[in-house]
Amino acid sequence: MSKKLQKIIDSAAISNKVKELAYMISTDYKDVNPVLIGVLNGCYIFLGDLTRNLEIVHEIDFIKISSYRNGSTNDEIRLIHDINMDISGRDIVIVEDIIDTGNSINFLKKHFEKYGTNSINTCAIVYRKSDKETKIDIKYKGFEIDEGFLIGYGMDYSGWGRNLKDIYIIEE
Q1: What is the mean pLDDT of residues 87-98?
Q2: Are 45 and 11 in contact (CB under 8 A)?
Q3: Does the reported pTM lie above 0.90?
């Protein structure tokens, strides 16, 4: 890859933010057994770190959707792989690497509502503050950024960069 990268969030800051989010979730769900549903592929590093820092009993499942292709947003969101567990009557937390337009989160919330969940909240390590195409409610927000294409800590550019321990903006 010949793109220039600018580090915007280092691994120490990420670790601290993950602990903060885990504490908030642990406090809010201290009396229930929530299901954390990771949105693949980008969530896997964040979800792994988050779950190791939770102080509550919880379960994990994964869902895979498609809305990005070669670095650009696709208007159509497709379900690639659904969850495997019964979440009816359960409290769930959708775990994302980044929330950008809000379209994916709203798609997932509507999808999970069909299962008869008790509650649905959202957690993302990165939240893009720019004008949203869709109104969204994110209870557990990590870092807020204004713009830029991000890679690292699970986020990628056409499959590249997920393994980077820090978060970078790709500079044009």
Answers
A1: 97
A2: no
A3: yes
